[in-house]
Amino acid sequence: MSKDFSTVLRTKGLKNTPTRKAILEVFPEDCKPINAEYIFDRLKKKDINLVTIYRNLDSFEQAGILKRLNLDKGSAYYELTGNHHHHHIVCTNCGSTEEFGAHDIENAINKISKSSLFGAINTHSLELFGVCKKCATVK
Asked: Would you call 94 helix, strand, or coil by DSSP?
């Protein structure tokens, strides 16, 4: 991974520990969201327990290093912040997830912000749910 997580942790006011760096290094470069159980499986050899992973994910979310996503898959999924802004489509049948960028959606959000009681919208999350092409062809 190309990110210098030691610097990211220090910048966000968190201690730079081997456990924290190991957890962050599990996040894939392709921005695919992952959950605590995935991280736990990847770090079994490092003997990091699931409670520690959950605690650190919460700290990373509070510090703005990670973004929590509601992908309706039974557990919270996370992705690194600071990567390109995108949204997700989730198959309600097989659970596959695909990211997409949406310039038109961003424009609509800007219009809503200008016409609402809010001076600015700081962040947003959009997940779309449906059936992927692969599942749609299986009957």
From this structure: coil
